[in-house]
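Page 47, continued from p. 46.
Same chain as before, 226 aa.
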Amino acid sequence: MRRPAAERLLREERGFTLVEVLVTMVMMITVMFALYSIFDMSLRVFSFGNDKVEAVENARLGLAKMERELRASYPVDKIRGQRHLFFSPGSPATPARPGEDEITFGNDLPQPPDPPNRYIADTSVAAPQADPGEEITYRLNSACPASGTEGVCTLQRMNNGVSSPVVEHVVPGGLSFTYLEGDLGPNDAANDPNGTRIAVVRVTLRINKDGREQTLTTDVDLRNRG
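Result:
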């Protein structure tokens, strides 16, 4: 005859039933699935926010590059008194008011091994052309639709016949230029058709990344204007 203590010990050493094992597995799977869902949602939120921050920062860098080049825009031929800053693409000798969504100007850049030569184009020759690499145009890509709210356009920089992307995720019509005079009053196209009195260029850039729109604006003082 077994002792009561021995019987109690044997009962305590019995394993789990199949039902208990199944219930435990279901509970563990439920908890793990909940934890995985929280982890996955956290990753999605982080990725979503990180993409937006990256798009805005890239837009700021592109806008800063445009700002530096615009601020340094140089008279077409300072030596010969042609002090206008803006012209139509390919026609530097003739002053032309820049558009509301496109701007062309020149930077007097060094031509190694020579230093800057104080002109964008030599207007003493027939049909003067800008020095290689010194004519710069900013505009949206040619395939950009006329309207829309999605960031499907790209801000392009045209230089020396080469088009380079500067900012992506720009909304259609999301690049605009506003022209001001020295007192920050509006520059009237009727009274200044060639844009020779423009002193400040206000650049506005609208981008849209994953449905969230951001507007970046900067005022550029033209330090080399006549």
